[in-house]
Structure formats: structure tokens, C-alpha cells
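Hi R.,

Here's the input for the manganese (II) ion complex you asked about:
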Amino acid sequence: MTLELPKLPYGFNELEPHYDAATVEIHYSKHHAAYTANLNKAVEAAGWQGKSITEILTSLELAPKPQQTALRNHGGGYHNHCLFWESLTPKGTGKAVGELAKAIDAKWGSFEAFAEAFTACAMGHFGSGWAWLVKNKADELEIVDTHDQVSPVSLGLKPIIVIDVWEHAYYLKYKNLRADWIKAWWSIANWEKAEERFK
Ligand code: MN
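And here is the predicted structure with manganese (II) ion in place:
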């Protein structure tokens, strides 16, 4: 049994103009596909066929030593991108909805204050990585960043919504302007899906 590259829930061009078709296509069919293929090789080498991605990411230290790094990097790369594509939609609401909206207001005072903190986290992340809204181990909302392809699942966190701030995620259209990519992300963030995850 292999771990499969999930189908994108929209066409390559459907997130335009915020996220351009060329970047979405390369990001998905080259980067995400490569993480998927390399993860399956590492799973096979470790004799870990049949484990779910969550089982893999929460038991990395139990894997055979020679495969631990590959499972961390490609397992995280695989799963982080699955969550990333689900975090986007052509029908963005612009802000959180439902119970999650209430919880964000309770924690940060307003959605605008949360957005400012999340943007600062994504902007401030040094090098390649991700900014996340998660539920932490105490079941509270928290904004965290992770480096390279470390998965929040491996850290005992429950991901709600995420932005990819690796340069490959935005360089074709936005060049070095990460701030412009983050601004665009807010227009296509999938808060309906985030609400589902929150619940
Ligand atoms: Mn990426």
C-alpha cells in the first residue's frame, strides 16, 4: 500500500490571481509529488508499509535509524502539503467562520489582531518553513512556525490552517516579496475547512 498524492480540490488556475496557475502546477506536480515518491521509498526501506501518515509522523524515533531523516523530511513534506492545499480555496471568506471565529476572538481579541500575529509569524520565519494555526497540547489555539518539513503532528499539535513560506511556494510570481504572497494567501485561505478541523 502506498501513500498517494491527493487530488487537488480545484484546478491549477482556480486560485488566480492570488496564486498563479504555473506556481500551483509546479508546486503540486513537482514538489509535492517528489515528497510523495520519496516518502514511499523511505517507507518501503523501513519496512513500514501499511502505516498511516499520522502513525509515521508520531513515531519517527521508532523507525530504523537509516530511514529516520528521510521519513521526517518526506513524511512532513508529504503531509504539510496535503494540509496546505486543503487550506486554500477559490471561495475564500476572508476571515474565520463559526466556532473557530469565536475562539479566535476570545484568544486574540479580534480577527484583525489574530491576522496581524499570524502574518508576523509567517513573515518572521527565517529560511524555509511554515506558519500554522494549531490546537496545542492544552487544546488551546496557538500560532507556531515549523522549519523545513517538520510536521506539527510530530510535535503533538493539531493543525487547523497553514501557509507555506518556502521560496518555491511563491518565487515564480512574487519573487523575493514574501509579504505579497502572505497578503495574497488571506484572499484564498479556506476558513470553512479550518472550522471543520477545529471541531
Ligand atoms: Mn511547498
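One thing worth noting: The two ends are 30 Å apart (CA to CA).

Cheers,
M.
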